[in-house]
Amino acid sequence: MTISANDRKTIYVGNGATTVFSYDFPVSVNTDLLVSLKNASNVYVVQTLTTNYTATTGPSGGNVTFLMAPTNGFGVIIESRTPRTQATDYVEGDRFPANTHEAALDKLTKIDQEQDEKLSRTLKIGPDLTIDPTLSSTSAGYIVRVNSTNTGIEAVAPELAGAITDVVPVSLGGTGASTASNARSNLGLAIGTNVQAYDAGLNALSGLTPSANTFPYYTGPGTAALTNISPLGRSIIDDTSLLEIHNTLELTPDLDIQTFDSNLQAISDTILGANQFPYFTSTFTAAPATLTPFARTLLDDSSASTARTTLGVSIGADVQAFDTTLASLATYNTNGLLTQTAVDTFTGRTLTGTFDQITVTNGDGVSGNPTLTLPIAVVLPTDASNSSSIAFSEQTSTGSNVVKLQAPNSITSNVTFRLPGADGTAGQVLKTDGSANLSFVTVSATAGGSDTQIQYNSTGSLAGSSWLTYNGTNAITYRNGTSAAQINIGSSTNGGFLWGGEAGCAIAGNNGGAYVQAYAGANGQCVYQTQGTGDHIFRVAGSATAAMILNAGGRLQVGSGTGDEGGSLNVRAVAGTNVAAFRSGVGQTNGTVYFNPETGGAVGSIGWNLTTTAFNTSSDYRLKHQVVPMENSLASILRLKPCTYLWKINNSIGEGFLAHELQEEFPLAVTGNKDALNPDGSAKHQSVDPTKIIGRLVSAVQELSAQNDNLCRILLTHISEIDQETRISLTGDIRARLGFPRETPTL
Predict the structure, then answer these.
(1) Rg (CA), the chain
(2) Span 144-164, mean pLDDT?
(3) Alpha-carbon distance 96 to 109, whole Å?
(4) Which string of DSSP letters, residue by residue, matches 470-505?
(5) Distances (CA, A) of 528 to 6, 377, 490, 491, 723
(6) Which three-class secondary structure state does DSSP give residue 78?
(7) Rounded to 10 degrees, what is the CA torsion of 445, 447, 448, 453?
(8) How many CB atoms lie within 10 A of CB 159?
(9) 346 within 8 A of 328, measured Cβ to Cβ
(10) What is the C-alpha separation between 178 and 113, in angstroms, rounded?
């Protein structure tokens, strides 16, 4: 082919958008092109074929296509660079192909044109001059000048006198000044205004040797290095707004990426050292904290199961597994005594009383412990078939019979019997004065005789009445008209008798001479006492088992076959019934049972209202001093040994702690000592109050939360130190863990 074009170079200026640049000189193969970019520092950076650009060739030129548009203002230089080789071999006697010969001539022509282009940019000496351009010697920083004989050039030191003696104006190629400062000003090179003053950071950058697809970064004060930059990285760098960057990364603010946040800014401003992570010291303020080796082993766990293993936490063994009953209980938010009414169903109950029978205060336990109070005048309940009665049981060793005092089935008005204020004498009986007052009087009468108190005939009947009869052997019977016997006095079986006098009344028997006495005491009191030191034993009719025992020490034992459990009040439930039931009085909506020491206020209570029950213990700040925040709670919690077990008494399943093991970490949560014994040699068991652990649990959760926050800050701080491709991959992993679609940008 013919080569008419003499210019083997094309120059453009990039605009940050254009990627295709044409050239108009013939090139056989794309490797014969030299493509360079001239950056803002006037440094020529040679581009690499296929890495930075692709090229097409042809007899009339072709196109250079950059993978990333050259930066706005950067020079784009496309030059011909024909290899200085001779690959054509002519064999004697062989054919002389024109195409081969012409291709060799074309190559030589291209080389000549390229050399001409380079020579056009060199210093030339006029044809009429006889100056020899050869330098015999030179040194760094020397000035090249024509020698004194005008026959050649030489290199001399700048400080040589006479080199330049006068101020040379700028128009003639000088500086127009005799000082460096003025020279820089005249040339428009004022340091800090027109040119950059020396900077260690810039000097570090100038010492780098960049290559294709690299960019510099600082490794320390005054030191820098190069790292690779991918096409995606370049596409991010040339974005002119945050929106363009978001679009390049395919990230939507508030959906895929975090918008600006003052707390995150505080984290980014925190300077971290080795094994540190940031945490917040106040609003919008962060500081570094140490990341322990253990915390790092937790952070590299890839699943919740692995993390639990690292923490030594096993669901169902170390922590509570999900339970629908507990979940239902967690949502329960109603005042009153807690009651389960069905499977996973809870409601609040309130203790109520009955007028004239029992009064309940704080029946729901909300305002304090429920309190049960008996009125001064107790009215026993009745129903449509039975009137109220009080029964007194005989000793269990002799039988299960009872003595019962019962109201008539029907009365026209209230009836009151007021006991005497003192005991009577032997043989006296009780007498009413018609105004509710009873007194002891002496009765003396004989068969057929008369007395002012009682008259009866020889047949054993009162004169003119059949209400009171004597059977002539061992008993006097009182009848209400024609009804059944109401009171029998005297018994040949046990020698019991009823007697009365001015001081009171008594029911006695011949069993050791013991008897029960009731009388009116001072200030309207009703005194009920035994004569002797024995217990008060109450039995139900037909049963030899004690239903209630009040001993001489004032301790009350209630329940079938009652036994002394060591308390002032001992209650034993009858099979199939509750141990105790409390109900508030009519119109009452809440109540409280208080627990008080001998001196001071209440230290605990059980309170209830119409819906819920609260179990309370004293915690007022006015009862405390030397209050110090808890520390190292997480370590204490981790040393606990939660477990499941079977109760020996019935093999029912239990879960929680062994008291003596819990006592090692939380002594306040455990009552008693390991392997303790009662005076009789029986086991004195330890007990646990789980609520004493709540404070430590809350403190441990706070410690975990702080650790988690610090780890997040470390991740956010160091994410920028990861190279772009790894960061993109890591972002994809994080997105996948968070449930977002995994979108890895195409590089």
Answers:
(1) 56
(2) 73
(3) 20
(4) E-SSS-EEEESTTS-EEEEE--TTT--EEEEETTEE
(5) 139, 15, 22, 23, 94
(6) strand
(7) 30
(8) 8
(9) yes
(10) 44
Structure tokens at 22: 């044409």
Q: Which positions ≥6 away from 355 have C-beta within 8 Å?
A: 379, 585, 586
Torsion angle of alpha carbons 444, 447, 453, 454, nearest 10°? Answer: 140
Residues present in the chain in total = 747
Q: How many CB atoms lie within 10 A of CB 662?
A: 21
Extract the tokens encoding 160: 């040589």
The rounded mean pLDDT for the chain is 79
Q: Average of pLDDT values for 328-340?
A: 83
Convert 12-62 into a string of H (helix), E (strand) and C (coil). Answer: EECCCCCCEEEECCCECCHHHEEEEEECCCCCEEECCECCCEEECCECCCE
Q: Is the pLDDT of residue 422 over 70?
A: yes
Question: Do residues 593 and 371 lie in contact, with contact meaning Cβ atoms separated by under 8 Å?
Answer: yes
Q: Measure CA of the first residue to CA of the last residue in the chain; give whole Å.
A: 41
Q: Does residue 494 have a pLDDT over 60? A: no
The number of angstroms, rounded, from the C-alpha of 684 to the middle of its chain's C-alpha atoms is 38
Looking at 181-275, which runs of residues are DSSP E strands? Answer: 214-220, 223-228
Alpha carbon distance 167, 183 (integer Å): 10
* Rounded Cα distance, 126 and 143, in Å: 21
If pLDDT is split at 50, 70 and 90, which confidence band does 160 have?
Answer: low
Residue 293 Cα distances to 276, 296, 396, 512, angstroms? 11, 5, 72, 82
Show me where the domains of the chain are located. Answer: 9-119, 389-544
Q: How far apart are CA 539 and CA 396, in angstroms?
A: 8
What integer pLDDT is reported at residue 702 of this predicted model?
92
* pLDDT tens readout for residues 451-471: 334 444 444 444 444 455 555
What SS3 class is residue 677? strand
> Tokens at residue 403, please?
């003595």
- Residues 441-459 as b/e (b if ≥16 CB within 10 A, e otherwise) read eeeeeeeeeeeeebbbeee
Q: At 502, list the tokens.
A: 């001015």
Q: Pull the structure tokens for residue 480.
A: 């209400």
Q: Is the pLDDT of residue 6 over 60?
A: yes
Q: What global pTM score does this model have?
A: 0.31
* Rounded Cα gap, residues 650 and 576, in angstroms: 17
The span from the CA of 660 to the CA of 683, in Å, is 14
Q: Is the dihedral of CA 595, 599, 603, 609 positive or negative?
A: positive
CA–CA distance, 585 with 602 (Å, rounded to integer):
23
Mean predicted confidence (pLDDT) in 641-660? 93
